[in-house]
Sequence to fold (129 residues):
Amino acid sequence: MNILVAEDNKFTARQYKILLEKMGHKVVTTEDGSECVKKYKEAFSKSEFDSLDESPFDLVLLDHNMPKKTGAQAAKEILAKNPDQKILFVTAYQRWAVEDDTDELFDKIVLLEKPFTLGQLSRKIESLG
Fold:
Protein backbone atom coordinates (compact mmCIF):
# COMPACT_ATOMS: atom_id res chain seq x y z
CA MET A 1 0.00 0.00 0.00
CA ASN A 2 0.99 3.62 -0.52
CA ILE A 3 0.41 5.37 2.80
CA LEU A 4 0.47 9.09 3.60
CA VAL A 5 1.13 9.82 7.28
CA ALA A 6 0.50 13.12 9.08
CA GLU A 7 2.07 13.12 12.55
CA ASP A 8 3.65 16.13 14.28
CA ASN A 9 5.60 14.04 16.81
CA LYS A 10 8.82 13.15 14.98
CA PHE A 11 9.52 10.07 17.09
CA THR A 12 6.03 8.68 16.48
CA ALA A 13 6.20 9.49 12.76
CA ARG A 14 9.51 7.62 12.53
CA GLN A 15 8.03 4.61 14.35
CA TYR A 16 5.10 4.53 11.92
CA LYS A 17 7.46 4.77 8.94
CA ILE A 18 9.75 1.99 10.19
CA LEU A 19 6.85 -0.35 11.00
CA LEU A 20 4.95 0.29 7.80
CA GLU A 21 8.01 -0.05 5.57
CA LYS A 22 8.89 -3.34 7.31
CA MET A 23 5.37 -4.47 6.40
CA GLY A 24 6.17 -3.69 2.74
CA HIS A 25 4.30 -0.41 2.43
CA LYS A 26 5.54 2.74 0.73
CA VAL A 27 5.30 5.62 3.22
CA VAL A 28 5.31 9.40 2.85
CA THR A 29 5.39 11.32 6.14
CA THR A 30 4.32 14.89 6.81
CA GLU A 31 4.64 16.99 9.96
CA ASP A 32 1.20 18.59 10.12
CA GLY A 33 -2.24 18.65 8.57
CA SER A 34 -1.44 21.50 6.21
CA GLU A 35 1.61 19.76 4.73
CA CYS A 36 -0.40 16.53 4.46
CA VAL A 37 -3.16 18.16 2.43
CA LYS A 38 -0.58 19.86 0.20
CA LYS A 39 1.25 16.57 -0.51
CA TYR A 40 -2.04 14.77 -1.07
CA LYS A 41 -3.29 17.35 -3.58
CA GLU A 42 0.06 17.37 -5.40
CA ALA A 43 0.09 13.57 -5.69
CA PHE A 44 -3.61 13.48 -6.61
CA SER A 45 -3.18 15.96 -9.47
CA LYS A 46 -0.32 13.85 -10.86
CA SER A 47 -2.33 10.62 -10.64
CA GLU A 48 -5.45 12.14 -12.22
CA PHE A 49 -3.72 11.98 -15.59
CA ASP A 50 -2.85 8.30 -15.14
CA SER A 51 -6.36 7.18 -14.23
CA LEU A 52 -9.40 9.06 -13.07
CA ASP A 53 -10.26 6.20 -10.70
CA GLU A 54 -6.86 5.99 -9.01
CA SER A 55 -5.98 7.56 -5.69
CA PRO A 56 -2.31 8.35 -5.09
CA PHE A 57 -2.54 6.78 -1.63
CA ASP A 58 -4.27 3.62 -0.51
CA LEU A 59 -4.50 5.02 3.01
CA VAL A 60 -4.03 8.33 4.80
CA LEU A 61 -3.10 8.04 8.48
CA LEU A 62 -3.93 11.26 10.35
CA ASP A 63 -3.12 12.31 13.89
CA HIS A 64 -5.93 14.38 15.39
CA ASN A 65 -4.10 17.11 17.26
CA MET A 66 -1.58 18.79 14.94
CA PRO A 67 -0.39 22.34 14.30
CA LYS A 68 -1.62 24.43 11.35
CA LYS A 69 -4.48 22.03 10.54
CA THR A 70 -6.05 19.33 12.69
CA GLY A 71 -6.53 15.81 11.44
CA ALA A 72 -10.26 16.48 11.09
CA GLN A 73 -9.64 19.58 8.95
CA ALA A 74 -7.16 17.67 6.78
CA ALA A 75 -9.60 14.75 6.42
CA LYS A 76 -12.38 17.07 5.27
CA GLU A 77 -10.15 18.62 2.59
CA ILE A 78 -8.86 15.25 1.40
CA LEU A 79 -12.37 13.77 1.23
CA ALA A 80 -13.59 16.84 -0.67
CA LYS A 81 -10.93 16.05 -3.29
CA ASN A 82 -11.50 12.28 -3.19
CA PRO A 83 -14.62 11.05 -1.33
CA ASP A 84 -13.46 7.42 -1.58
CA GLN A 85 -10.12 7.94 0.17
CA LYS A 86 -9.51 5.52 3.08
CA ILE A 87 -8.52 7.45 6.21
CA LEU A 88 -7.28 6.07 9.52
CA PHE A 89 -7.69 8.72 12.19
CA VAL A 90 -5.54 8.26 15.30
CA THR A 91 -6.27 10.19 18.45
CA ALA A 92 -5.45 10.22 22.14
CA TYR A 93 -8.96 11.49 22.84
CA GLN A 94 -11.98 9.32 23.43
CA ARG A 95 -14.34 9.12 20.46
CA TRP A 96 -16.88 11.39 22.16
CA ALA A 97 -14.20 14.07 22.68
CA VAL A 98 -13.60 14.49 18.93
CA GLU A 99 -17.21 14.15 17.78
CA ASP A 100 -17.69 17.90 17.28
CA ASP A 101 -14.71 18.00 14.92
CA THR A 102 -15.42 14.73 13.16
CA ASP A 103 -19.17 14.17 13.40
CA GLU A 104 -19.83 14.23 9.66
CA LEU A 105 -16.68 12.16 9.03
CA PHE A 106 -17.54 9.14 11.17
CA ASP A 107 -18.97 7.12 8.30
CA LYS A 108 -15.93 7.96 6.14
CA ILE A 109 -13.01 7.42 8.52
CA VAL A 110 -11.75 4.64 10.76
CA LEU A 111 -10.81 5.72 14.27
CA LEU A 112 -7.98 4.21 16.31
CA GLU A 113 -7.69 5.50 19.86
CA LYS A 114 -4.29 5.98 21.51
CA PRO A 115 -2.59 4.37 23.25
CA PHE A 116 -2.24 1.43 20.90
CA THR A 117 0.57 -0.99 20.19
CA LEU A 118 2.37 -1.09 16.87
CA GLY A 119 0.85 -4.56 16.46
CA GLN A 120 -2.66 -3.13 16.84
CA LEU A 121 -1.82 -0.42 14.29
CA SER A 122 -0.46 -3.05 11.93
CA ARG A 123 -3.60 -5.20 12.21
CA LYS A 124 -5.88 -2.18 11.71
CA ILE A 125 -3.99 -1.14 8.56
CA GLU A 126 -4.05 -4.68 7.17
CA SER A 127 -7.81 -4.82 7.75
CA LEU A 128 -8.22 -1.69 5.63
CA GLY A 129 -6.06 -2.96 2.76
